[in-house]
Design brief:
The protein is an alpha+beta fold and about 70 residues long. The protein has 3 helices and 2 strands; from the N terminus they run ααβαβ.
Amino acid sequence: MGRSRAVVGFWLMHCLGRPGMYREPMAELLAMTADGRLKPQVGGVYPLADAARAHEDIRARRTHGKLILDVTR
């Protein structure tokens, strides 16, 4: 509280029933991604066959960012 920090979350299904709640923020998010202002941090790329290993790495905290399961490999 001394630094005014918080952990905030939401339930996506609650938002889907209220389009006015997410349309504008989602459009802004997608525009920022499309023009390069927002870039996801990729922590690793795994072949789809190694999905179990990707989950193990997440559980063991050996990853950071988002993991990609590559269906072409």
